[in-house]
Write a structure and sequence with these properties.
mainly alpha; 11 helices; globular
Amino acid sequence: MSGNGGRSGDNSAGSSLGSIMKNGLWNQNVVFAQLLAMCPAMAVTTSGTNGLGMGLATTAVLIVSNVLVSMIRHTVSSQVRIPVFVVLIATLVTIVDMAMNAWLHDLYKVLGLFIALIVVNCAILGRAEAFAVKNGVVASAVDGLAMGLGFTGALTLIGLIREFLGAGTLFAQAANLLGPSFAFLEIKMPGYGGALLMILPPGGFAILGFLLAGKRVMESRRDARGKENSAAAPAVAA
């Protein structure tokens, strides 16, 4: 799942950490590349605020779980590592769930069950098994941050598009997540009632499909430019 599994350690070079960030944000993006966590990606992205909240909660769990798994990787035997990882992740999710219920109750009521379902998010256990158990604390923390930010960006982007097309708003109820001072983010398009289909699951899958296609087109054009530059380099040298 990770292309850096055997290269990144406690003394990772800056270039290695940079590649970890690039993988999490783009090359191995949880949603747009690995197609994991489709349940929250479709269920909670009816608005940008909901997507942002779920993404930040997942990012917190990813970072801490990666760090803890990296710290205990030499003391936990391979026979019991999966149950141990699940217990660690479940504990962290319970803490996040209780914290959101206490301090972000309005958002908690919207996200509801999907906070608890972070425990079974394939991305979190996958990063623990594919990366954190093989790498040092610093690299694992960066990997958790990169994967979490990539996931947060994907959910927020899908949520904003669905929200705009489906309800004519952007970052509705952002003050519930970020505080009253961020109420300026809440935008309402006058005279546009929205298309209900975009809020429903079919609309979510349609938006995801278009975004996946756009990413593939961008990567194809980048690869084509790279081949052109490579072909032109010998000619210039000659």
